[in-house]
Amino acid sequence: MAPRPLTSQEIDAALAELPGWEFTEDRLRRTYSFAGHFPAAAMVLHVARIQEEMNHHADLLLGYDSVGVSVNTHSVGGKVTELDVRLARRIEEIAPSHGARP
């Protein structure tokens, strides 16, 4: 079954369970902060592995001590779908193990 864009109510409900995430410009976004560059880079590699497993990819921005995540689904015109929410949840699950700061 092809993904479908979520309604604004569905996005709001998902964001209620994703602290630190926001919905802007038809994307789910979050920036994580770390104690230094190595834990941030390790987080990017871990996210890359999850993305390959899911066959769904976010835009990642690696800074010295931060990682920015921005995701939507291109196949539905760049809108947010359940795939994006699932990826965000998976990222939230692993972030603490890399020392992500709130």
TrEMBL record:
Enzyme Commission numbers on file: 4.2.1.96
SUPFAM superfamilies named in the record: PCD-like (SSF55248)
Superkingdom, natural source: Bacteria
InterPro entries, alphabetized: PCD_sf (IPR036428), Pterin_deHydtase (IPR001533)
Keyword hit for Lyase: yes
Pfam families assigned to the protein according to its UniProt record, in alphabetical order: Pterin_4a (PF01329)
Catalytic activity entry: (4aS,6R)-4a-hydroxy-L-erythro-5,6,7,8-tetrahydrobiopterin = (6R)-L-erythro-6,7-dihydrobiopterin + H2O
Principal EC category: lyase
GO MF annotation, one: 4-alpha-hydroxytetrahydrobiopterin dehydratase activity
Single GO biological process annotation from the record: tetrahydrobiopterin biosynthetic process
Record key words, sorted: Lyase
PANTHER family reported for this sequence: PTERIN-4-ALPHA-CARBINOLAMINE DEHYDRATASE (PTHR12599:SF0)
UniProt record similarity statement: Belongs to the pterin-4-alpha-carbinolamine dehydratase family.
Protein name per its UniProtKB record: Putative pterin-4-alpha-carbinolamine dehydratase
